[in-house]
UniProtKB/TrEMBL annotation:
All residue ranges annotated as the Solute-binding protein family domain in the record: 82-414
Signal peptide: 1-31
Cited PROSITE patterns: PROKAR_LIPOPROTEIN
UniProt KW keywords: Signal, Transport
Protein name: Solute-binding protein family 5 domain-containing protein
Pfam families (alphabetical): SBP_bac_5
Species: Paractinoplanes ovalisporus
Family: Belongs to the bacterial solute-binding protein 5 family.
Amino acid sequence: MAIRRTRRGRMAVALVAGLAIAALSACTTSAQNQSTSTASDTLTIAIPPGINSLALPTNCSSPLFSLTYASLINVTADGSYGPGLAESWSYANNNTEFTLKMRTGLKFADGTELNAQSVVDTLKYFQTTPGLNQGYLKPFTSITASDASTVVIKYAEPFIGMETLLANDGECNNGMMISKAGLAEPAKMGTATFGAGPYTLDAANTVSGDHYTLVPNPNYYDTASQHWKKVVLRVFSNATTALDAVKSGQIQVSTVNDGTLVPAAEAAGVDVADGQRLGAGLMIWDRDGTLTPALKNEKVRQAMQYAIDRPNLAKVLGPRYKAFDQFVPDGYTGYDESLVGKYPYDPAKAKALLAEGGFPSGFKLTVATDAADAGAANMAQAVAQQWKAVGIDTTITPITAGSYFTEVGQKKYSVGAVSYALLGDVYFDAVRLTKDPYADVWNPFHPQDSEVDAAYDKLARASETDLPALSVEFNKLITQKAWFVPVAEAPATLYSKGVEVGKSALLGQFDYISWKATS
């Protein structure tokens, strides 16, 4: 089976982290009060707010979609990639062609056939539907079914992120297949599910925004993995309340992230699993100086790095945060020990670099924050104070929750702060942050840099053997150019009791399908 397990070059969308951060507000009262069975045949999971529609491809991080829509490729319990609707897959023609071999005899939950043409139809729907991740599928030059069980995807330039793009690990569900009924009437997908996953939505026992009840899909291809007679997803806005529900046995798992609760959870005998590591930082978008001329100068961008006291900021952000100042956090492919401490806190050097870059008196800067990303907003406020101390007069502008990506795309802001600025894997971050059209959202000004383009091309053509060294090269280049301002990183947390949850994939997704009660 041609499965690229060792290449962790994964692409994902950043909203995964945004939903987790958004979970730190007041709790949904009705979800707390809903009576929930604690019988061994029912799995109850706390999820954060944010599911405003059931339509794909949205709400990347929720178990709801992995459980009701089957993916072409699955995250497995050990965090690697394994078969889903596709039994095997392979790259060809210098990584410009990707072939999937489908299982036979597949059906959607409504009983209709799921074959290679279903995959073609779904991927073309995603490719032409405006949204956060449309850019990831735009480069596909053709999507065809060579026979009833074989799908061939071609693209003009080399690309090695297909596993993550088509798996259920945070790529905003582009690999989840939709039935003909859903594709025919997309508006209905906002309130119902049209998938082939192990469970289906029980609409009669679901209240949108409060709780979602799932029951086994009789047409699922792997009935042995349907471990529960019922799965209930309850919305909690407060991580402490969700953890209390795990402690008391009202629910078995909480995906509502708050790393500060780890000591309390462990003291109460609750299991803690680390999910996605979120690299909080600031993205410098206007690197050509269109709105803010100073940002075109590399020395100015480097000055912004030296002006930040990362160790102290990490303490402010939370007990699990640790400082980092390169493109890749510790422990991931591409991380370079020689870059540790490349940008120590040195206000005097920051001022000197500003002068060398032509801005001895500093400059004015506006930073955008997302109202749904409280952690990043707090970080940005602290960074703004330190930048002001060296002459960068920084104003923080919060953008209404739900409007962030639209506003950013209109080129209104030179810099933006997010809690998921860097997600750990060089190839994944290189794609989503620097390579058009994949990077449409996170590269709004579309500046050109021949050195970065050349380094990216090497990554996209890399063999498994060469990828680690080339990832280090890319890390060094981007860190030197100071396109991004990493501040601190920490893992998201998952709390459970009485359930085997396994390990998360690189981008934080767990194999929800395999979850079962501990014996």
